[in-house]
Amino acid sequence: MLQIATLDDDTISLPAESLEALRSSIRGEVICQDDTAYDLARGIFNGMIDRHPAMIIRCSGVADVMRAVRFAAEHRLLTAVRGGGHGIAGTAVCDGGLMINLERLNSVRVDPQAKIAWVGGGAALGDVDHETAAHGLACPGGVVSTTGVAGLTTGGGYGWLRGKLGMSIDNLRAVEIVTADGQFRRASEAENPDLFWAVRGGGGNFGIVTTFEFNLHPIEPEVMLCNPIYAAEHAREVLRGWRDFMATAPDELTTEFFFWTIPPMDHFPEELHGKDVVVPCAVYYGPPEEGEKVIQPLRELAPVLLDISAPMPFVEIQQMFDPYLPYGEVIGYWKALYMDRMNDDMADTLVDHFLDRPKNGRICPLVLHYLNGVSQRVPNDATAFPGRNWSYLMEYNLTWNDPADDESCIAWVRSAWNEMRDKYQQHGGAYLNIDSYSDDGLAWVKETFGDNFPRLQALKDQYDPMNLFRLNPNIPPSE
Ligand SMILES: Cc1cc2nc3c(=O)[nH]c(=O)nc-3n(C[C@H](O)[C@H](O)[C@H](O)COP(=O)(O)OP(=O)(O)OC[C@H]3O[C@@H](n4cnc5c(N)ncnc54)[C@H](O)[C@@H]3O)c2cc1C
């Protein structure tokens, strides 16, 4: 007998025969609290989240996913879906219910002639980079290689190639997906086009993607990384200079502005450890010598403390932040905000937030994305993803080590985020993939999806009327 939580805020007892029948129909594993695999299987990126599902189904393939979804629907089980486990809100795991763990679905197959990759629903970005780089190809993803492809792509997918090649969803050709009725479907522009529209930005609301089919792109053996590091004393002038430079930068250049503290790691000079800095980081998609010329002004915005700009293999750039964000060891509370402008006053407020942040926070508390190029030229209603017409994405990404700091760190994030939102009237939602959205309810989800929300809700009615997939930025059915 197993006690397990349901969608109705209730608990039911699953008889031993029912569990046995499930076990014998699954090629992967059915893991319960007493099993040795339990703690590893329930673990996710954000060390703040310590939830205990009653049961974990670690799927070995599509048939297991179909079986798991049917079992969950039949018993109306509270169900969490884990792709790469990176969602900062922690929705990949639940207390008392069922966790469908996809980590074994991490295969990547590349057709180098057709420039297409088929990627499993539990693969990490590093799995994709590894396979595509072998053919001199790249797939637009995110900037930390341990991030799951599934959550990132169904939520949008911002990475270093977005200026020239668009977001991850803009490179998606099709998905194979198990919907809440346990049916396996294909969705593309030609097959189930409404479902294809919804999974490109609508998050995990519509089913479990078992395979993503992506277009790939040729990439130079090395691309130019712009990585000049400026002391925080120059933050205001560097931020303004970066903003002004980017206004006329080519699509090939994608940039993120980091407010950072130099970590105590050997590859940084010891005298700089612990120093607050700002970094107008960028990657140029094209020949590195061309990129070097383009980025030059970003290296001269003020006296430079340290400049580690260099041509690098793209796959190495994709891993450069990994050591600062160890899986499961970081506690994090993040809030994001789309912004329509960055005037001097707003820039100064951001710098003030950086300098005033809790000093127990870890190294990279604020990140500002300049949203330019191809990703911003896709109409807002072409996919479910709503964030095409914004100029910036601001992230308050506070991470820390000691649970005793949870309350003060969360309070700081919320207060800085609220100030930015209210003082400058930035009311258009956020990139929910980088957001502890659970605290802000349906209003926040609606604000973010804007005009796309009614169509998403109609599709939710069609594909998941019981709201089985609700542990996500949830679009509830209309009833
Ligand atoms: C350190 C770090 C760096 C990041 N960098 C970037 C970045 O550069 N660019 C960017 O765009 N985002 C980035 N993100 C955010 C990232 O996109 C989200 O965290 C995303 O949810 C990660 O996907 P995942 O599969 O690992 O998530 P999980 O935590 O496993 O899942 C999150 C949600 O996604 C859904 N989901 C998971 N698997 C599936 C599936 N197979 N089918 C359907 N739905 C599924 C479920 O609703 C689940 O609740 C980063 C996050 C972190 C923590």
Automatic annotation (TrEMBL):
A single Pfam family it belongs to is BBE
Q: Which UniProt keywords apply?
A: FAD, Flavoprotein, Oxidoreductase
Task: Name the residues that span the membrane.
Answer: none
Check the record and name the SUPFAM superfamilies matching this protein. Answer: FAD-binding/transporter-associated domain-like, FAD-linked oxidases, C-terminal domain
The lineage's top-level taxon is Bacteria
Which residues belong to the signal peptide in this entry?
none
Keyword Oxidoreductase annotated: yes
Q: Where is the FAD-binding PCMH-type domain?
A: 49-219
Q: What cofactor is this protein dependent on?
A: FAD
GO terms for molecular function, please?
FAD binding; oxidoreductase activity
Checking PANTHER family in the record gives:
BINDING OXIDOREDUCTASE, PUTATIVE (AFU_ORTHOLOGUE AFUA_1G17690)-RELATED, FAD-BINDING PCMH-TYPE DOMAIN-CONTAINING PROTEIN
Family recorded in the similarity comment = Belongs to the oxygen-dependent FAD-linked oxidoreductase family.
Q: What is this protein called?
A: FAD-binding oxidoreductase
